[in-house]
Amino acid sequence: MVAKRIIPCLDVKGGAVVKGINFEGLREVGDAVQMGVEYSAQGADELCYLDISASREERSTFTALVEKIALGINIPFTVGGGISSLDDASRLLDSGADKISVNSAAVARPELISEIASKYGSQFVVCAIDAKCVDGVWKVTTHGGSRFSARELFSWAHEAQERGAGEILFTSMDHDGTRGGYACAQYARLSDELSIPIIASGGAGSLEDIAEVLSDGRADAALAASIFHYGQIGIPELKRALAERGIAVRPA
């Protein structure tokens, strides 16, 4: 049985880790590099760094920060935010990132996924999808959830897989930052319909939420921020509890 992954998410703005609800009301919670080092030591399987203002402000993710992170940790990490070209992806991967995450730019130009996957391989490409449920339809949003696109969650996820994405990172913008649980039914459907790993993001508020999305939601990985940043649960404690529930995880 393939072990489920626990992935702390560090939303970065100006080099600091920030947190809010639906990317609004942001406040600093720590240093991006130091927090990564601490999570690595605690037993996180991977890390995800998202420059949440990069797309909205039309600027690139800071390469220097990626270099510092790569020097400080010994687990895989994904970087996203403001990646709009093959050159952007190459700069980040060459600076030490293990994977890159594309979102707004891929919605606008899906060929970006194919270009990166063709050069580096699907295992280096994560397609991040932010969506909100409107009248029963999960509509894909861009620019930190501030703009609706014409795309729908499930059809876009299928297209991203076909274009070469190696993983789907779906964030329910309705759940993000609320600590009210994940959109488990949507993760289960994505897992059933796609052949690539599904990372769940948005809504973790308790150990039970994470256990539910990894079991009933059939997600391959759980990504969370607030629950870790504010010390609600430690990664070693979380992994022990998941293992006790019969969920396969790597030891912390």
CATH fold naming:
TIM Barrel
CATH superfamily: Aldolase class I
Could you say how many structural domains there are in total? 1
Rg result? 16 Å
Helix % is 25-40%
Low-confidence stretches: none
What is the CATH C-level name?
A: Alpha Beta
How does CATH name the architecture? Alpha-Beta Barrel
Strand content: 25-35%
Class inferred from helices and paired strands: alpha/beta
The dominant shape is: globular
Question: Taking all residues together, what is the mean pLDDT?
Answer: 91
Write out the strand line-up for the largest beta sheet, numbering strands in chain order. Answer: 1-4-5-6-7-10-11-12
Tell me what the structure shows.
- By secondary structure, the chain is of the alpha/beta class.
- It has a single domain (5-244), classed as TIM Barrel (Alpha-Beta Barrel), CATH 3.20.20.70.
- Helix content is 35%, strand content 29%.
- It has helices at 32-42, 63-72, 86-94, 104-108, 111-120, 153-163, 184-193, 207-215, 226-229, 235-244, and strands at residues 5-13, 16-21, 24-31, 47-51, 77-80, 99-102, 125-134, 137-142, 147-152, 167-172, 198-201, 221-224.
- A hairpin with a 4-residue loop joins strand 8 (137-142) and strand 9 (147-152).
- Helix 1 (32-42) packs parallel to helix 2 (63-72).
- The longest helix is centred in the N-terminal third of the chain and has 11 residues, at 32-42.
- The chain is globular.
